[in-house]
Amino acid sequence: VDLVNTSKSWDMLKEYMAEEKTLSDEDWINFTNIYVLQDFAAKWAESMKATFSRGSYDSVAEYIVTKVERIKRSVPALKYCKSEAFKEDHWTELLQGKLQLPRDLRADKLKVEHFLSKLDILMEPATLSFVKNLQARALGEVQIREAMQELRGWELSAEVKFLTQEESGRQVPLIKEWKDLFLEIGDK
Q: pLDDT exceeding 90 applies to what percent of the chain?
């Protein structure tokens, strides 16, 4: 009986590890849905509950339960670790600064496994706050870049029209439609 239960436990671990490996190997940038990790953890948590109800709790089950709980607790922070607004400096701040990943790791080489290896950091409340602020800052910088680009475009197309007025025998150029131009400059 013990041999059968041990064999079932190791088969269960093998299945868990295979599913986790499939997720781990995915490219982080193209990983479309963080909830896949949450669903993975929930599925295995339910499976472990069913196993416990049959009374076969062992070190393998304990390992899986611990791992899926850590994944579930990390999902809120992981949601903010993906943003199209992130530039290289944001990625560096997240990967090398907060998550303490190797210095040569860049976003284009990032895999889900890199995040799964840092669950202890990701599940901390301070990390959630950090990644929320990082994403908000990145989005704010995108808005600033877009506004600057719009301003440059306006600058190239803006035209100042002059009207020549004669005053005391001198030709004085006056800006035509200056109020509209002044308002547009203020808007920009």
A: 57
